[in-house]
């Protein structure tokens, strides 16, 4: 029992205890973490009212003093005398809250711990800023905090994306190339040409032609930045062959394709043009046209897990106490191999409620303009997560966001089209944001949050532990995939080394392969580079090219066995048609007309035959047939 006599106060009397400890409580307040600013701000008087367990309609003061339990819950009721100052007492794990009648406003250095509230870990907040922004700059920190208080939108929005579906034509001043340019223009397709001679190109193709000046035999002239915006390529580059006796300025002897003239190589060798030149061209355009299997951004093939540096970005930045981390599980994937892991504990204390992991800004922005979206391979837990893609190096700016649902305990592929991304700034839709720019991706972020957008809540949110294994993140091309790289090769490329072949019945290029610098051998090597590159391709192998008009009946074959002739105009039309055909992707085929060499093909210029439906031919093509089967002793696929 506690006794209080007239001659003095008992040492166990709570009144005496209160007065003796009052000074110590004030000193403890000075050591408390800084008050939250804006979203980190200390609660208002109205918030104190809402959290007070008293039946009183207001919570303006205490009498006698209010003591908080180690859980931060009130141990006494509130009265309504005067506004009090809040102080933390004790350790971070076991904080006590005292309201003393000394001030009419909240201390600016106080951290409020009401029912369910916990102290803010300002050290973790500082570590987060340091991880993503580098060594602290006091001026920038102040600017960042002031911006977080006052800003409602980012100060510098990402640049507007430039969208285009430009087709690059290489070898555009050659016989097939210039016709390809003409066909594309007639169809209204934007064209850019790669040429060595600008004056020749403008004379032949017009003064307004969009040019890249470069030479496939010189890799340093093919800077990939010149190819931005290009989605597809038709390659008509070929080593130059001409009559030994000479030719006319417009190469009439060679171009006619019917009468034979003793040939020789003019200019760079077949190895330089057909093989090394192909290497250079593929390296230059590969990022722009994309890969059939997509671009792996995160995964454990080729050590890509170390490409990005991940760090936690949790609600500590707004005063919360949730914590998450990125880890690698050595055997956590569905195949028993390594996988990434986003895990943590989420809490709504201190008005928090989200955790996330985010990559540091990429040293060089990722250009994913060749792709249609991002695919995540995850093992779900039945909850809804967010993917945030950032296109700015700024710390606090718009993120292009999509939510995705997961199935509990199952590995699944989640495809997020770029077209579905919502521009979001601090959980609110940014209605005036520029379009998403897939060519300038600076960071990726995975988030588990209580909040959706514009005040809506995540219906699957629950406080506590969570984890989301993810084995890969890759950019993808939407199905059906169409060819992105069309290459004009030549019939006969597999024949010079084919055993048992009667060369006397073969075209001159096959018979004279070695005399012509192994022209067909290097053409085949160039084809192999395309097939191995991963780009969606189609390889067209015309028989002897002529200046005859298009319109003759055609034969499409595979296996590299046919001989004959075909119009350059027809080949140009086939190449352009293949760009839009899923049936043509990944196919290698030969083509000729049904008209014999001895018969010229003519048409009535006033009534030319209609353009063919080449899809009829493409649909009959098979995968995996190149003609190399005869060289390797393997049967052709049928």
Automatic annotation (TrEMBL):
What Pfam families does this protein map onto?
Answer: CIA30 (PF08547), NAD_binding_10 (PF13460)
Identify the species of origin: Hordeum vulgare subsp. vulgare (Domesticated barley)
- Give the protein's recorded name: NAD(P)-binding Rossmann-fold superfamily protein
> What would be the name of the gene that encodes this protein?
LOC123424901
Which residues are in the NAD(P)-binding domain? 171-287, 483-582
Give every NADH:ubiquinone oxidoreductase intermediate-associated protein domain span.
Answer: 310-468
């Amino acid at each position: 029992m506690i006794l209080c006599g007239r001659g003095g106060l008992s040492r166990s009397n709570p009144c005496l205890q209160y007065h003796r400890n009052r000074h110590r409580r004030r000193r403890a307040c000075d050591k408390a973490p800084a008050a939250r600013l804006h979203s980190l701000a200390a609660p208002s008087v109205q918030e104190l009212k809402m959290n007070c367990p008293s039946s009183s309609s207001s919570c303006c003061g205490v009498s006698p003093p209010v003591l908080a339990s180690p859980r931060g819950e009130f141990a006494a009721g509130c009265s309504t005398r005067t506004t009090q100052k809040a102080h933390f007492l004790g350790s971070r794990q076991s904080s006590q809250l005292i309201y003393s009648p000394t001030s009419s406003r909240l201390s600016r250095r106080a951290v409020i711990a009401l029912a369910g509230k916990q102290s803010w870990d300002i050290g973790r907040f500082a570590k987060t800023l340091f991880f993503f922004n580098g060594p602290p700059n006091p001026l920038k920190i102040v600017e960042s905090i002031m911006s977080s208080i006052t800003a409602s939108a980012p100060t510098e929005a990402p640049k507007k994306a430039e969208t285009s579906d430009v087709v690059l034509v290489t070898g555009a001043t050659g016989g097939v190339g210039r016709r390809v340019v003409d066909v594309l223009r007639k169809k209204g397709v934007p064209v850019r040409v790669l040429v060595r001679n600008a004056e020749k190109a403008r004379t032949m193709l017009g003064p307004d032609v969009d040019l890249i000046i470069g030479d496939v035999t010189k890799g340093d002239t093919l800077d990939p930045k010149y190819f931005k915006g290009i989605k597809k390529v038709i390659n008509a580059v070929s080593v130059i062959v001409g009559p030994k006796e000479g030719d006319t300025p417009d190469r009439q002897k060679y171009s006619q394709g019917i009468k034979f003239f003793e040939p020789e190589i003019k200019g760079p060798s077949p190895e330089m043009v057909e093989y090394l030149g192909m290497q250079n061209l593929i390296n230059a355009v590969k990022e722009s046209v994309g890969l059939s299997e997509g671009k792996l951004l995160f995964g454990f093939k080729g050590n890509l897990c170390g490409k990005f540096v991940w760090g936690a970005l949790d609600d500590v930045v707004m005063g919360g106490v949730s914590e998450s981390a990125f880890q690698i599980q050595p055997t956590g994937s569905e195949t028993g191999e390594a996988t990434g892991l986003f895990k943590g504990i989420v809490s709504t204390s201190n008005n928090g409620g989200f955790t996330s992991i985010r990559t540091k800004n990429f040293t060089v922005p990722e250009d994913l303009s060749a792709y249609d979206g991002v695919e995540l391979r995850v093992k779900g837990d039945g909850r809804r997560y967010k993917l945030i893609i950032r296109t700015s190096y700024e710390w606090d700016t718009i993120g292009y966001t999509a939510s995705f649902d997961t199935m509990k305990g199952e590995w699944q592929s989640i495809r997020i089209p770029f077209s579905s991304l919502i521009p979001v700034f601090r959980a609110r839709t940014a209605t005036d944001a520029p379009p998403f720019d897939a060519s300038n991706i600076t960071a990726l972020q995975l988030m588990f949050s209580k909040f959706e957008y514009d005040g809506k809540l995540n219906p699957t949110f629950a406080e506590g532990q969570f984890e989301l294994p993810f084995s890969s993140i890759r950019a993808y091309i939407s199905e059906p995939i169409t060819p992105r790289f069309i290459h004009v090769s030549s019939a006969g490329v597999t024949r010079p080394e084919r055993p048992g072949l009667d060369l006397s019945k073969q075209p001159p290029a096959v018979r004279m392969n070695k005399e012509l610098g192994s022209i067909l051998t290097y053409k085949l090597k160039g084809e192999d580079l395309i097939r191995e590159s991963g780009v969606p391709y189609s390889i067209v192998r015309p028989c002897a090219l002529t200046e005859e008009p298009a319109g003759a009946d055609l034969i499409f074959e595979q296996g590299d066995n046919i001989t004959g002739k075909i119009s350059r105009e027809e080949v140009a039309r086939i190449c352009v048609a293949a760009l839009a055909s899923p049936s043509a992707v990944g196919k290698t085929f030969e083509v000729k007309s049904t008209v014999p060499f001895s018969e010229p093909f003519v048409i009535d210029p006033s009534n030319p035959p209609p353009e063919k439906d080449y899809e009829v031919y493409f649909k009959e093509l098979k995968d995996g047939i190149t003609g190399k089967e005869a060289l390797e002793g393997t049967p052709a696929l049928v």
